[in-house]
Design brief:
The chain is of the alpha/beta class. The chain is built from 19 helices and nine strands. The protein folds into two domains: about 10-175, NAD(P)-binding Rossmann-like Domain (Rossmann fold, 3-Layer(aba) Sandwich); about 190-430, N-(1-d-carboxylethyl)-l-norvaline Dehydrogenase, domain 2.
Length: about 475
């Protein structure tokens, strides 16, 4: 094929990048890839249709092969690598070309890059992509934000390759500046929370109810047919049906109990604190991954303390666990959406909460039946302060909160760590308390630091010489 005729360029031909570019080609757009690794280039050429897909290790060949304005997507590790790739490509680009960062870049990095490139006449925006390698190949959820003019150029391609729900593409413009990367960051924070909650429920079945893996698999599979229907519950059922190829055990039982992380959950927690938004279930999910990493220390502590002294606990049922998990799912989504709304106000993104819920219904890791209800809630009231203030969600919460309390109490009585579930209950209790105990905290602050306080019975700021 001659040069200057490919519709779409992609840098980074690992599994994610290769799958995404093949997805683009499947939908009628020609695509050209770039990677420094010749094996990755060869793998793409071998798998792709030669009339639609090509690739090179030569950046000059890559850039010269793209139609103008060039549409170049980066699927490379976040951080310095993104800056290096941009600087390598920049001398070869022309005014009006578009660079799209499809990785999990921190949102302030996206703002910086957009400003730097705008001075050079290059459009830049971040587009979060969720769905993993399979999603990239068959239809992810895509969260673009930044230059709306630039997005409109790439919009037909993104709409073609994205997942579809009821014929609607799971992609839409998220807002100005780094809105796309921010939405993807919070998506991942919610993902951390949901994974933690599911894992806690597994451990309660395993250690509390002493269920075998086969029965646990059946429970998750059954739950996935009801109100807990979601990608994460679905794959959890799959995990419990897999046998280990290296032993006679179930695979789940030979996997080391250390969960790693790439930072997006931590970023969500950190920025929530900056915004003054509580997201304790997401915070706990991040903390539990950090605790899991110190396995040697945990084993020493277990030897020191021996068996936990626990109290008799009320009998737990699968229905209790299902209700508690549903309750905690709602609370976790509510925390994430509240953070998005606060970020929208702080950073002036121009987000639409109903749109975010809509594009998360398919393709992404946190897709779930609940998201259609969330879309409806925000469509009905775009200024909804919290998902927990929607009447339909209030009914769901009231139906499940007692199960959540029972499960949290059971976990404490049995000495089984379930910080995510417990934090969801504590958050709900604090959120629904018209009066809290923090008057004492403020009194303490005034006592030792003269920080002053406000009163219930009159306006103004006061200080006491304690």
């Amino acid at each position: 094929m001659s040069t200057n005729q490919y519709d779409f360029g992609l840098v980074g031909l690992g599994v994610m990048g290769r799958n995404f570019i093949l997805n683009v080609a499947d939908h009628g757009y020609s695509a050209f890839g770039l990677d420094t690794n010749q094996e990755q280039v060869d793998a793409l050429k071998e798998e792709g249709d030669e009339d639609k897909v090509d690739a090179s290790t030569d950046k000059k060949v890559f850039v010269s092969s793209l139609k103008r304005p060039r549409k170049i997507m980066l699927l490379v590790p976040a951080g310095k690598v993104v800056d290096i790739v941009i600087q390598d490509l920049l001398p070869l680009l022309d005014e009006g070309d578009i660079i799209i960062d499809g990785g999990n870049s921190f949102f302030t990095d996206t703002d910086r890059r957009a400003e730097e490139l705008e001075e050079k006449g290059i459009h830049f925006f971040g587009a979060g992509v969720s769905g993993g390698a399979k999603g990239a190949r068959r239809g992810p959820s895509i969260m673009p934000g930044g230059s709306k003019e630039a997005y409109e150029v790439i919009q037909p391609i993104f709409e073609a390759v994205s997942a579809k729900v009821n014929g609607e593409p799971c992609v839409d413009y998220m807002g100005a500046k780094s809105a796309g990367n921010y939405v993807k960051m919070v998506h991942n924070g919610i993902e951390y929370g949901l994974m933690e909650l599911i894992s806690e429920v597994y451990w309660l079945m395993k250690r509390g109810m002493v269920l075998e893996n086969e029965e646990i698999q059946s429970v998750f599979a059954q739950w996935n047919k009801g109100r807990l229907q979601s990608f994460l519950v679905e794959i959890t059922a799959d995990i419990f049906s897999r046998k280990d190829e290296l032993s006679d055990a179930d695979l789940i039982d030979v996997i080391l109990d250390k969960a790693k992380q790439k930072g997006t959950g931590k970023w969500t927690s950190q920025n929530a604190m900056d915004l003054g938004i509580p997201v304790p279930t997401i915070d706990m999910a991040v903390s539990m991954r950090q605790i899991s990493a110190i396995k040697d220390t945990r084993q020493k502590a277990q030897e020191l303390y021996g068996l936990k002294v626990t109290r008799p606990a009320a009998e737990l049922t699968k229905a209790d666990l299902e209700g508690a998990l549903y309750f905690a799912f709602i609370v976790t989504y509510a925390q994430g959406m509240t953070q998005l709304a606060a970020a929208d106000e702080e950073y002036q993104y121009g987000m639409d909460m109903a749109t975010i819920a809509r594009i998360w219904r398919g393709g992404c890791i946190i897709r779930a039946a609940l998201l259609e209800d969330m879309r409806s809630a925000y469509a009905k009231n775009p200024k909804l302060e919290s998902l927990l203030l929607d009447e339909d969600f209030a009914a769901k919460i009231q139906d499940t909160v007692n199960a959540a309390r029972k499960v949290a109490a059971y976990a404490i009585d049995k000495g089984i760590p379930a910080g995510g579930l417990s934090s969801a209950v504590a958050y709900f209790d604090a959120f629904t308390s018209g009066r809290l105990y923090l008057n004492l905290v403020q009194a303490q602050r005034d006592h030792f630091g003269s920080h002053t306080y406000e009163r219930l019975d009159r306006e103004g700021t006061f200080h006491t010489e304690w």
